[in-house]
Amino acid sequence: MTHYRRILKEHTAYFSFASASALAFFLPSPTVNPRKEMILVTGANGQIGTVLTEALRGAYGQDQVLATDIKKPEGHTGPFEMLDILNTQRIAEIVGDYNITTIYHLAAILSANGEWNPQKTWNINFNGSLSILELARAQGLRKVFFPSTIAVFGPTTPRDLTPQHTVIEPTTVYGISKAANELWCNYYFNRYGLDVRSVRYPGIISYQSMPGGGTTDYAVDIFHQALLTGHYTCFLKANTRLPMMYMDDSIRATLELMAAPQESIKQRTSYNLAAMSFTPAELAEEIKKHIPGFTISYEPDHRQEIAESWTESIDDHEARKDWGWKHAYDIETMTTEMLKQLKLKYNHV
Ligand code: NAD
Q1: Is there an atom of ligand 1 within 6 Å of 126 CB?
Q2: Is the CB of 110 inside a 6 Å radius of any atom of ligand 1?
Q3: Core-most of 22, 24, 41, 346, by most CB within 10 Å?
Q4: Catalytic-role residue among 4, 174, 201, 207
């Protein structure tokens, strides 16, 4: 049994103790909804989508998960359709043709890349997401997952242990669009009862896939360069502390949030989510424990300003209380795992 199928099974076992009405809502039954769970993932070929799609296929079945993106898949081989999130007519056709019941809407332009073309970023991030919510409402879909981000926070937000409810005045177009989308998620839940669930991911660190143009990308690049060249030139300053999370934790958080009983979901904007916070200098020290000759230098660029507008650590106790979130990886275990997996990839012994 895969790790993710086990999560699903544990939650299904939990559901069997829940009230009859809650069960009716969550479990597909002929009297409530005869359709099988059929999942659409947008932006499925990105850093998170590549791994999440595989995890969903492991949990729900290979053919139950349709991956879509504007670029062709490299990492996975199941059902796939080319889909531009701005093509609302095509999304509606796909939802109908495949009997989609749940959408994981990942397609977006990330923080650093977003600043190159703010209008395009707003259009894809904001309008793309709003049209997914509207389609889900109009077609009576079961659930929508919307990934938000620590980029919704800004320079006026408390920087340490940022609370769930706090000042949200982001300075990037990425943060502005995600903050607006969070409010629309809340609106669609309150106004229409749409079961939309969301987390504010910190920077995600993965060996399976490369990051797509965010401000925390250094925390992935550094591992590749440590193994390939023994040196990394970091685009952030040595002491820039940011919240981060290992990919395994972020995927498990996503599956656990989506499998939780509806009554336990209290935040319909987006949940704070945390695992670890570190600086580039601290990560370099951790890598040196495994690769003693590793060196790092610093050439901060435009991403430094974005990083400084974000918070340093996140208070995620609401997620822990409401649906049992618990991270597994800290900087030590994440570093060990990243180097182990990438050594296999690069055939290092
Ligand atoms: P990514 O940039 O790696 O992937 C995004 C995918 O969206 C890409 O494959 C891209 O081709 C696709 N895409 C872009 N424009 C599109 C369009 N018009 N139509 C359809 N697809 C389009 O991003 P990711 O890191 O996988 O992030 C996934 C989601 O998680 C995003 O919504 C992002 O905001 C959020 N998030 C990611 C992180 C992180 O550290 N990776 C942190 C916080 C939030």
Answers
A1: no
A2: yes
A3: 41
A4: 174
Assess whether the C-beta atom of 206 lies below 6 angstroms from ligand 1: no
**Smallest CA separation from ligand 1 atom 5, residue:** 46
Asked whether residue 98 is assigned to any structural domain, the reply reads yes
Given the CA of residue 124, which atom of ligand 1 is nearest to it? 18
4 is catalytic: no
Ligand 1 centroid to Cα of residue 271, in Å, is 18
In a domain, 268, yes or no: yes
pLDDT digits (tens, 9 = 90+) for 210-239: 999 999 999 999 999 999 999 999 999 999
Number of domains in the chain: 1
Neighbours of 22 (CB within 10 A): 15
For residue 23, the enclosing domain spans 3-204+247-275+313-328
Does the Cβ of 182 fall within 6 Å of ligand 1?
Answer: no
Distance 108 CA to ligand 1 centre (A): 4
Question: Residue 184 and residue 19: Cα distance in Å, rounded?
Answer: 29
pLDDT at residue number 77: 81
- Ligand 1 pocket, residue 216 CB under 6 Å: yes
Residue 168 lies in a domain: yes
Instruction: Flag whether pLDDT at 348 surpasses 90.
Output: no
Per DSSP bridges, beta strands 271-272 and 196-201 are parallel
Long-range contacts (CB closer than 8 Å, 24 or more residues apart) made by 57-63: 58/2, 58/3, 58/4, 58/5, 59/2, 59/4, 59/5, 59/7, 59/8, 59/255, 60/8
> 237 near 304, Cβ under 8 Å?
yes
Evaluate whether residue 307 is within a structural domain.
Answer: no
Q: Provide the whole-model pTM.
A: 0.92
